[in-house]
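If you are new to this repository, start here. Below is one unmodified record pulled from the training split, so you can see the exact layout before writing a loader.
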Amino acid sequence: MKIGVLLKQVPDTETKIRIKPDGSGIETGDIKWIVNPYDELAVEAGLRLKEKVGGEVVVVSLGPTRAQDALRTALAMGADRAILLDNEAFQDGDSLSTSRALAKVVQQEGFEIVFAGKQALDDDAVQVPQIVAELLDWPHVTNIESFELQGGGDVARVKRGVGGGVTEVIDARLPVVLSCDKGLNEPRYASLPGIMKAKTKPLAKKSPADLGLDAGEVGRAGAVVVASEFHLPPDRPAGRIIEGDLPAACAELVRLLREEAKVV
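And here is the target side for that same chain:
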């Protein structure tokens, strides 16, 4: 089986984000970059499926040259090869222009199933897997918490929580796009032999022309949404301590909530 995994490199969650002086974006020079944690779940799902049915796991990412590090991490975990969309024309796009490029890779590779993280921790857009599936005209299930093949291997049975303790069970015929949530699995660590092997595994770079796309369809040129100004959220005001005995303090709290905060 040919298994695709969509992967994104994102800032480490411990990174202190700084905005550029002109507000056009974030300072990236001192950021530590990691594999998007939800995408690690997708890599693990792909590897486990390969261990059960055989085949090949291919990880795909759109990003600058440094995104090779994230792809090499997935290769060290056990993926077979990687594809990086690293042409300048791909950069600074939105979810739609990114998805156009990724969907073309999926078509070219002939994946039978595609795993992705449910969201990226940098922009939190929660859109790319859904748009890729729509462009491919494939079924798609979000936030999956379990996965297995049914019906002779051509149907994916997945479970997903929908709130209130309710779980949906969905059967989707392959080819299918599945986005992964916490609880699906526990991603493996890359072993030392895996890290050494990753250095020699194939990592291809593709341009828009390689995918049969015009430069105007991808990156900022193909975007329908452009982030034009960035700023940090305002500092929280300091908390207030209400002095006095309990009845008086409660009365004062209610007054403040009603007259100042205007929430009651």
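Two things worth knowing about this chain: The longest strand covers residues 56-62. The helical segments are 37-53, 68-77, 95-109, 128-136, 192-198, 246-259.
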